[in-house]
Amino acid sequence: MKKTIKQYILENLLFTEDESAIQDNDSFLDGGIIDSTGVMEIILFIEETFGIRVNDDEMLPANLDSVDNLIAFVQSKQAQAVAA
Amino acid sequence: MCGINGIAALSRQTKISEEDVRSMLPFLAHRGPDGSGVYLDPSQQVGLGHTRLSIIDLAGGAQPMHNEDKTVWVTFNGEIFNYLELRKTLLKDGHSFHTHSDTEVIVHAYEQYGDDFVQHLNGQFAIALWDNSRRRLLLIRDRVGILPLFYTRQGDRLLFASEIKALLPQLSEAPRISPTALDQIFTFWAPRSPNTLFEDIFEVPPGHILALENGCLSESIYWDWRFPEQDDYHHGSDADLAEQLYDLLADATSIRLRADVPVGAYLSGGLDSSALVALIRRHSDAPLKTFSIGFEEQSLDESVFQKQMIEHLGVENSRILCQNSDIAENFPATIFHAETAILRTAPTPMRQLSGLVRASGYKVVLTGEGADEALGGYDLFKEDKIRQFWARHPQSEWRPLLLKALYPYLETSGAQAKSYLQSFYSIGLDKPNQPGFSHLPRWFTTTQCKVFFSEELNSRLRENAVDRLTEQLPIGFDRWHSFNRAQYLEAKTLMGDYLLCSQGDRMLMANSVEGRFPFLDHRVIEFANRLNPRLKMRALNEKYLFKQAMKSQLPRQILERHKQPYRAPDIPAFFSSHPPAYVTDLLSEEKLKRYGYFDAQKVGFLLKKAKRGSSIAYKDNMALVGVLSTQLCHYFFIEQFSQTASQSGSSYLSLT
Fold it and tell me: In whole angstroms, what is the distance from residue A21 CA to residue A32 CA?
C-alpha cells in the first residue's frame, strides 16, 4: 500500500519518479504540492484504489496531508471495515 | 482600428528603405484590410507604415497623415473619441484641416501642445509621430493599454509595429523566448510590461511615451492608475455620487458610439455588459445588435441571463455556441495571434465571437471590460477583504469561513473547510500590509506550475518575479487603502498585460474588429479611483455604487445575480476524444527536450493524467495550457521562423 500511495503522489502531484522528491512526512499543503482542488483528487484516488469512503468530517489535513498521514488513515479505515 | 509599423535610424549614417517598411505590412493586414500606406522621410531617417480599417471619415482618413507644411507625420491605430471637440478648439487656434478624420486631430494637437497633447486625448491609441523639424520620433500608447505597440533594436535601426509578427521579416534571426518572461507568465499569467515573451522585444507600456532623438531612446510616463491617500475620497451622498457616475458612464458610452459604420455590443449576461447595453439603448436611437457566446459546457454557459437582457431591452442578438472541440481546434491560431504563452484557454472563444461580428457585417463593438477593475467587482477583492479582516484576528476560527461564500466547492463540511481554508488562504497573514498581499494566494498557486520548468530554464532564472514587481510599485502605494492596492495590481498585471491584449485586442483584431471600452474612459477611472472603497464593495456586495447608478435600468435578476467569472473549457476539451495531432506532436518527449523549456518526464506524467480524464486540478490545467502554448510559440516564431517571416508557411493551420 505504501508503494502505491507514494507512487501515486510522485507521479500525479510531483510529476516525477524520483523518490527523494518528497519525504513521507512532508505536508502537501505547505509545499504547495496541492491547490484547493487537489484535495478532491487525493480523496478520489484513495476511494477508488482502496475501496473506502471518506466521510466529510474526515477530510482533514491530519488524515490526508502527507504520505504518512494517508497510509495511517487508509489503514485505520480498512481496519474499521474489517471490524464492521 | 488599424495596424501601424515603422523603422527609424539609430545613427546618421543608417538609411531606411521603403521596401523594408513595406515588408512588414502584410503581417498587419488582418488589422487593416481596407488599405495601406507608407511614408518615407526624404532623408531616409524614418519610415512609417499603416494598414487601415476604415471607421471614421471613410474617404479621407488615409495614413500616414501630415500637418499643413508636412513637418509632422503620424501613423495611428485607434480612436480619439473626443476628436470633434478637439477639432473645434484647434480650428479656433488657427489650425486648418483637410480631412474629417480623428487622425488629423493628433497632428494639430501635437503642434499646439507639444508632447502634452496626449493629455488632451480621450481614446485608445498606439501612435508613431515623426517631427521632422526636431528629427524626433515619438511612440505613444494609450493610458491603460487597449492597443498594442512593440519595438526592438536591430543593429542601427529601431523597428516597431502593432504586433510582434510584423517585426519578424526585419530580424536577421529568430527571436529567443525569454526565461524571465516565462517566469512572469507562470506567476502573473502574462509577461510584465515592457517585457514580451521574447528577449529584446519590448512593448511601449500603457500610459508611456517613448522618444527617439539623436539615436537615443528615452521613456516618460504621462498617466497611471493613481489612488488618493486614505480618507481623501469624494464627498457627497451615495445618491449624488451614483448620479455623477451614471452621467460619466453615459457620456463615455455616447462618445464611443461615434463612427461612420454601425456599432454593435458584446453581451455576456453579466452585470457589466448588461449595463453597457442598457446605456447604449438609452443614449442612441440606432438599432443595436448584440453578440453573445454560449457554451456546450453547461457550467460555463450564461444563455439564460443573456436572453433575459435581450428581451428586457428588445435588442437584436446573434450568438455562437462554443463546443468543447472548438477549443482544441482553434488553440494554435489563438496563440499565433496572441504571440505569447497563456495559462487559460479563455481567449479562444473570444476570437470565435469576433469572427461572428465580422461575418455579421460589423467592424466595431462596445464591450464591458474594465468595470470590475475600476469599480471593484472581482472575487479577488472580496478574498483580499476577508483575508484582511482575518489577519486582524488570525486565531479566529470563524473569520476565514467567510471565504466559503466565494468558493462554493469549499462548502462541504465545517471541519474540512476550516482546516483547508486556513492552509490555503493564510499565506502572508502575518503581514497584511505587505505589497502584493491581495494577490499572494493566486500568485502562489500559479507559481506551483513552475515545477514543470526544465533544469536548463531554472538555471537561467535570475530573479524572483514577485520581488521584482513589488520593487517597481509607484511612490505612495503603501499609503493607499488595501482595496486600492489590490485594484492597482489587478489593473496593471492581469488587465493590462493579459485581458486587454491576449484576450482583447489580439482576438478582436484577428477578425478585423475594433473593441471599444466605455468603462476604461480615463475620466471614469479617475472618478472611480477617488471613491471611498466602501462604495465599491459594501460588506461583500461588489460594485455597490455602480449597481446603485444602474438600478433603474436593469432587471433585478441581473443586478442581484451571483457574479460568474468568464471561463472557457480547459484541458479536458483537448482530451475528451482523441487529442489533435499538434498536441501529441508538441508535447512529445522529443519536442519537449529539443525546445528545452520543460522537463519532459514531468510533462509526460501530467499528460498521462490529462488523458486518463480523471479530475484534473486547477493548477494542472494552467500548467498544461502554459506548456502547450509555450511550445506553440516556439514552433511558430522560432522553429518555423523563416516560413512565418516570409509568410510562406500555412503550417500553423495544417497543425490543427
Answer: 13
